[in-house]
Amino acid sequence: MASRTIIATPVVASLSSASSNTSANPHNRFLIVCGVDTRQAIGHLPGQALQSLFEHGVDARVRFSGKRPVLKNTTAEEVQAFLDQVELVSLLGEERENVIVRELERCHRRDPGPYAGAVRVRSIETFQATEPERLT
Asked: Residue 30 above 80 pLDDT?
């Protein structure tokens, strides 16, 4: 039996992290967003922003539908790969465990298998750190 991964998460504040972490595993095929969508200090509702991402994608500047938030450290290509790989299941406002578990089971039954698209891994330049000099 193939490994299956379904992510159920309360509304996330870091959409960039959710996108890159989810795309890293081809078995991640569903993203269930549940819980209360609270306004963050940066002024947007993360759950609604995530729904907007799935409905409208991002513009060339990797902004949601011409508005905030901007996905930093993420390319439009990476966002599109995430959208192609993962299906959003919105249970915004839902906190009852039995309802969330029922949706998890439904996703498990209709699992399409691992994502066949190429997962692009971005290389990061590494360098050797040096001992800091003493400030005088």
From this structure: yes
Q: Which helix (H) or strand (E) holds 97?
A: helix 97-109
Where residue 79 falls among pLDDT bands split at 50, 70, 90?
confident
Token representation of residue 92: 């915004």
pLDDT per position as a tens digit, 50-77: 888 888 888 877 777 645 566 777 778 8
Domains identified in the chain, total number: 1
Largest CA distance in the chain: 65
Residues 6+ apart with CB under 8 A from 64: 49, 52, 53, 56, 58, 70, 71
Give a yes or no: residue 67 inside a domain: yes
Element of type H or E holding 66:
none
Domain that holds residue 73: 5-109
Q: Assess if residue 87 is contained within a domain.
A: yes
Q: Which two tokens stand for residue 12?
A: 């996330």
